[in-house]
């Protein structure tokens, strides 16, 4: 095992690199950008720094690029960059022979122009046809297999992907065949068969280790641990987490996840002790609302009251609510408005009703979301662990494709570039941007943790009545919707009441986030207008101050959990983050 302290130490890690690592350490693009940033900090002009800090930063950059490649193991261009960056560190554990094979067997074919045109036109059916037909005649093509895998995961066509991978494994060069096994393991893991995934991950690890005679496939090891966890074999998962994190203590997402699972936090359930109101508002989504109420009513509510506002619906919503009133009796209160007043006004209306005013805790939930049986107890477990937060939220995954994460813990990050003049977005200096690490990879447990953040999803979030009375309701300027949740969360951050994310609770959300804004110009204009309003609420200096406060909160939380992991044999993790002697 390579010496961990030559790869990462919190005290010597450049600030911008540390900030990105605190946001997470998963996903190809996030890891690649973070790795390249670390490499840039290791340079003095065009020359690599020879001091200890420069060498450590260069080594960390190479390690981050290597893990980025593991998320996209058929990308020969990225593999070449990893090998170049790691050339000065021969003891860095890498699957070098597999990377060399990726470089040699990955090239853009001459007939790729039709594929690029179809991708630019968003003609995904044509993209699928091109990938499928080409892989029938050239089943060992790394280029086409990579394109097909990305499309299949995006569209949720796991069976199609599995059939292509089986043929690729048979025809690909031996040093690349293990990648098919790893990806086939992902198919089984996301499809709900962790035992089959475990066997494939173990076989993939054995194959890649037979190439290099050592270790170096970190992602495969982490996926193997996840398959054991989902099989209720924590005893088999824990040693894999210990090895991976001691060798790579910068794996922040998995550090947080392993801590909460090993400490029993991931399984904690707490029943509410005071009256709770579960509030929904809905406009013309009768079937979705019915499913949402079905899942809530079937969960352990501990006497919670449901309050639903019909926000001017013209469909079957009134009939659906009448049927639920007959079923739930006095546990359900309904309100009908003659017109749609928008999301923030609907929330404020609900907050003003006597039934909600009488409750100590208030939950807002989307009308197209469904919840597991223990959802309420998991939200209150988060409240019990972080009682000073202003709001508690959860992980949101897509209905019908639960491996796709829509929302996790959002953090303030570096400002985005100014939009180009003439486009849909207005051109003005931007200074508010949220991290989106969760969008870069499928749900393999890496976001199953509790911690503070800058914002949580409004799809399902818990407030206290006292907290709402002190911070105020939702801003009506953000009608009809978009950014009213974020504005409220940033208001809480300004008060020092940072939101808390409960990643051990996943609710399913039918709507694909942002889809309407991307497809409808008027919806996009409304969304951008609300974003501009939010941007103008804060100066650049104020956002930077919130960002720095948030980073301090994240770092303190990370250090506490790294220190606690020493009890589970992860002494190197503690040393990397806390400076404690091994």
Would you kindly provide a brief summary of this structure?
With 582 residues, the protein is an alpha/beta fold.
Any descriptors?
single chain, Serine Threonine Protein Phosphatase 5, Tetratricopeptide repeat, Spore Coat Polysaccharide Biosynthesis Protein SpsA, Chain A, 3 domains, 53% helix
Explain what you see.
The chain is of the alpha/beta class. It folds into 3 domains: 91 residues; 134 residues, Alpha Horseshoe (Serine Threonine Protein Phosphatase 5, Tetratricopeptide repeat), CATH 1.25.40; 291 residues, Spore Coat Polysaccharide Biosynthesis Protein SpsA, Chain A, CATH 3.90.550. The protein is built from 25 helices and 12 strands. Strands 5-4-3-6-11 form a 5-stranded mixed sheet, sandwiched between helices. Strands 7, 8, 9, 10 and 12 form a 5-stranded mixed sheet that branches. A hairpin with a 2-residue loop joins strand 1 and strand 2. Helix 24 runs antiparallel to helix 25. The longest helix is centred in the C-terminal third of the chain and has 25 residues. It starts with 14 loop residues before the first helix and ends with a helix.
Give the SSE map:
Layout: H1 15-23, H2 28-41, E1 43-44, E2 47-48, H3 52-71, H4 76-85, H5 96-105, H6 112-120, H7 124-137, H8 142-155, H9 158-171, H10 174-190, H11 194-212, H12 218-230, H13 234-247, H14 252-262, E3 276-282, H15 286-297, E4 305-311, H16 317-328, E5 332-337, H17 343-352, H18 354-357, E6 361-365, E7 369-370, H19 375-385, E8 392-398, E9 401-407, E10 450-452, E11 460-464, H20 465-471, H21 484-494, E12 500-509, H22 515-519, H23 521-536, H24 540-564, H25 571-578
Parallel strand pairs: 3-4, 3-6, 4-5, 8-12
Antiparallel strand pairs: 1-2, 6-11, 7-12, 8-9, 10-12
Helix pairs in contact: 1-2, 2-3, 3-4, 4-5, 6-7, 7-8, 8-9, 9-10, 10-11, 11-12, 12-13, 13-14, 14-24, 15-16, 24-25
């Amino acid at each position: 095992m390579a010496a961990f302290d030559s790869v990462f130490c919190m005290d010597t890690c450049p600030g911008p690199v540390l900030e990105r690592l605190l946001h997470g350490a998963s996903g190809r693009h996030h890891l690649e950008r973070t790795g390249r940033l670390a490499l840039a900090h290791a340079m003095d002009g065009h020359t690599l720094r020879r001091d200890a800090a420069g060498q450590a930063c260069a080594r960390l950059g190479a390690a981050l690029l290597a893990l980025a490649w593991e998320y996209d193991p058929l990308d020969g261009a990225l593999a070449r960059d990893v090998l170049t960056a790691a050339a000065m560190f021969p003891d860095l554990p890498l699957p070098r022979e597999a990377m060399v094979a990726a470089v040699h067997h990955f090239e853009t074919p001459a007939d790729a122009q039709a594929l690029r045109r179809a991708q630019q036109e968003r003609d995904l059916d044509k993209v699928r046809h091109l990938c499928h037909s080409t892989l029938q005649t050239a089943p060992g093509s790394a280029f086409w297999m990579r394109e097909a895998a990305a499309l299949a995961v995006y569209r949720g066509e796991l069976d199609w992907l599995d059939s292509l991978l089986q043929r690729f494994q048979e025809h690909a060069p031996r040093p690349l065949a293990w990648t098919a096994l790893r990806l086939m393991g992902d198919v089984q893991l996301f499809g709900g068969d962790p035992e089959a995934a475990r066997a494939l991950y173990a076989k993939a690890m054995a194959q890649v280790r037979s190439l290099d005679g050592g270790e170096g496939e970190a992602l495969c090891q982490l996926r193997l641990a996840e398959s054991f966890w989902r099989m209720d074999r924590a005893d088999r998962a824990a040693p894999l987490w210990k090895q991976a994190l001691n060798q790579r203590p910068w794996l922040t997402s998995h550090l947080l996840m392993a801590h909460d699972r090993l400490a029993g936090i991931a399984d904690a359930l707490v029943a509410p002790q005071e009256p709770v109101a579960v509030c929904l508002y809905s406009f013309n989504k009768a079937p979705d609302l019915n499913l949402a109420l079905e899942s809530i009513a079937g969960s352990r509510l501990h006497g919670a009251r449901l309050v639903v506002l019909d926000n001017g619906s013209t469909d079957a919503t009134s009939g659906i609510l009448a049927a639920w009133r007959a079923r739930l009796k006095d546990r359900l209160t309904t309100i009908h408005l003659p017109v749609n007043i928008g999301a923030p006004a609907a929330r404020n209306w609900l907050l003003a009703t006597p039934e909600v005013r009488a409750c100590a805790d208030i939950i807002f939930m989307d009308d197209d979301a469904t919840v597991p049986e223990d959802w309420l107890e998991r939200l209150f477990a988060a409240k019990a662990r972080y009682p000073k937060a202003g709001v508690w939220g959860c992980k949101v995954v897509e209905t019908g494709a639960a491996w796709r994460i829509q929302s996790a813990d959002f953090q303030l990050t570096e400002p985005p570039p100014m939009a180009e003049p003439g486009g849909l977005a207005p051109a003005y200096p931007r200074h508010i941007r949220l991290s989106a690490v969760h969008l870069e990879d499928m749900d393999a447990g890496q976001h199953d943790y509790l911690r503070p953040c800058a914002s949580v999803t409004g799809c399902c979030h818990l407030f206290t009545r006292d907290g709402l009375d002190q911070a105020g309701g939702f801003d009506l300027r953000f009608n009809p919707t978009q950014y009213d949740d974020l504005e409220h969360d940033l208001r809480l951050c300004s008060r020092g009441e940072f939101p808390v994310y409960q990643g051990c609770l996943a609710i399913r959300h039918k709507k694909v986030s942002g889809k309407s804004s991307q497809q409808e110009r008027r919806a996009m204009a409304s969304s951008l207008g609300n974003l501009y309003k939010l941007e103008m609420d804060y100066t650049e200096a104020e956002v930077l101050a919130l960002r720095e406060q948030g980073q301090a909160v994240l770092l303190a939380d990370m250090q506490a959990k790294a220190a606690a992991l020493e009890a589970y044999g992860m002494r190197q993790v503690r040393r990397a983050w806390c400076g404690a002697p091994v």
